[in-house]
Design goal:
Low-confidence stretches of chain B: none
Strand order of the largest sheet of chain B: 2-1-3-4
Oligomer: heterodimer
Structural class of chain A: alpha+beta
Strand order of the largest sheet of chain A: 2-1-3-4
Number of helices of chain A: 10
Largest interface: A-B, 25 and 22 residues
Shape of chain B: globular
Number of strands of chain B: 4
Strand content of chain B: 5-15%
Distance between the termini of chain A: 48 Å
Largest sheet of chain B: 4 strands, mixed
Chain lengths: 224, 222
């Protein structure tokens, strides 16, 4: 029931530029699970998207043997639970307390840290100073959590590292477009070092979208 | 010697989730009520130390280690105190579904919850419509099952039942009836209230209403 086989069908409905969608690509690649990917056009939602995520009509959606799961953090836990034999890379530790901490940081990334950085990068003149202050505060608490670890998961990529793809990769692009200095080696040396380890990790590297295309995509959005 | 402490506040539905779970599991714990949850200066040292990022209840402190966020606490409780009848399903797909619905519900109550009692006019009406729509979706998800967990009172039931102590408040302030809009949902509410863990935990809805009126006065919300 809980191990992958050639007969299992795994599909991902996603958007290439979305970090939430990308989390699922990274997770499946880390687990070595083959899957079919469909790019969704959110301005023109497919029948499949409406069928598999009728509540939110958003990506990413994972479809496994006909069952659909939505919300990226929910999908990540599902992937970790289903593909969990010794050959698969575990995203969460065994110990309940450390599992709770990892889940807490994933939630904090989505509820507090990502929104603060996103707001700073897209803020107008008026709100900019306050938004940047909040973004820097958010990065600080994240760096404090990293401490001296190589990854948030310890020696290997864990759930929090996957969820922090936005920090590891998207932030450098968005801050450049916005003309801001948020995650830099001077301001956050440990977190910056983590981001370099992250984007150079052999599996993660293959799973991230190309930088120049991502840059062009967000630059075009900034112009609107 | 296990030491389990729960930091809470009597009107918080998130705290109620944890209390119900602890009672269902038969776990002994010490409950510490916060004096006030609205202003940081009134919060206890223990809360500020245990949850420095959000400074919110609930916090479960197990042998000195704090765990925050109600769903995360429920997962922790289920993993530490394993029993024959667990809160979470053994099947990853049903676990994912429960997590999805809790996420959906929490996002909805965050965006429209406060507007139901703090706003007026069109804003309040829009929030009411959104809230009723949310309950209808949940009613649909419940279907013909006695509980969201199927035959057993489980995670999703525990996560959803606490907000129902606010129904009287919402109905009075927004002028609608949950019974009229979602009768099957109310059947489920009554069924859950027959469980001791729920009836012991949920506060009197009239007391909740009085509390909301006090909060409105305190923060000068008309």
């Amino acid at each position: 029931m809980a191990s992958s086989s050639d007969n299992e069908e795994v599909r991902v409905l996603g958007k290439w530029a979305s970090p939430f969608s990308n989390r699922i690509d990274l997770a499946l690649k880390l687990k070595g699970v083959p899957y079919k990917y469909s790019e969704e056009d959110l301005a023109n939602k497919s029948l499949d998207l409406l069928k598999y995520n009728p509540v939110h009509k958003k990506v990413p959606v994972l479809v496994h043997n006909g069952n659909s799961i939505a919300e990226s953090l929910v999908i990540l836990e599902y992937i970790d639970e289903v593909w969990n034999n010794n050959n698969n890379h575990a995203f969460l530790p065994q110990d309940p307390y450390h599992r709770a901490l990892a889940r807490f940081w994933c939630k904090t990334l989505d509820d507090k840290i990502l929104p603060a950085i996103w707001n700073a990068c897209w803020s107008d003149e008026k709100g900019r100073e306050k938004a940047v202050e909040e973004a820097l505060e958010a990065l600080k608490i994240l760096q404090d959590e990293l401490k001296d670890k190589k990854f948030f998961g310890g020696e290997t990529i864990g759930l929090v590292d996957i969820a922090a793809n936005f920090i590891g990769y998207w932030v450098s692009i968005l801050q450049e477009i916005a003309g801001l200095e948020l995650l830099t080696i001077e301001k956050f040396p440990k977190l910056y070092e983590w981001s370099q380890e992250y984007i150079n990790h052999p599996v993660i590297k293959e799973g991230l979208p190309p930088r120049d295309e991502l840059f062009a995509f967000f630059k075009a959005s900034a112009k609107k | 010697m296990e030491e389990v402490v729960l930091l809470g506040f009597w009107t918080s539905p998130y705290v109620m989730r944890v209390k119900i779970a602890l009672l269902e599991k038969g776990i002994e714990f010490q409950y510490k009520e916060e004096r006030d949850v609205f202003e940081d200066k009134n919060k206890s040292e223990l809360l500020l130390e245990s949850n420095p990022i959000y400074k919110k209840v609930p916090v479960l402190i197990h042998n000195g280690k704090p765990i925050c966020e109600s769903l995360i606490i429920l997962e922790y409780i289920d993993e530490v105190w394993k029993q024959e009848q667990q809160l979470f399903s053994a099947d990853p797909y049903y676990r994912a579904k429960a997590r999805f619905w809790i996420d959906f519900f929490d996002k909805k109550t965050t965006t429209c919850g406060k507007k139901l009692w703090a706003n007026k006019g069109e804003d309040q009406d829009a929030a009411k419509r959104e809230f009723v729509e949310c309950l209808k979706l949940l009613e649909n998800e419940l279907g013909e099952k006695p509980y969201f967990g199927g035959d057993h009172f489980a995670l999703l039931d525990i996560a959803l039942i606490p907000i129902t102590c606010r129904f009287y408040t919402y109905e009075k302030l927004c002028k609608f009836s949950v019974e009229e809009e979602c009768p099957k949902f109310m059947e489920w509410v009554r069924r859950c209230n027959m469980r001791e863990s729920v009836s012991k935990t949920l506060p009197d809805p009239f007391k909740v209403f009085d509390f909301v009126l006090e909060v409105k006065k305190r923060f000068q919300i008309q």
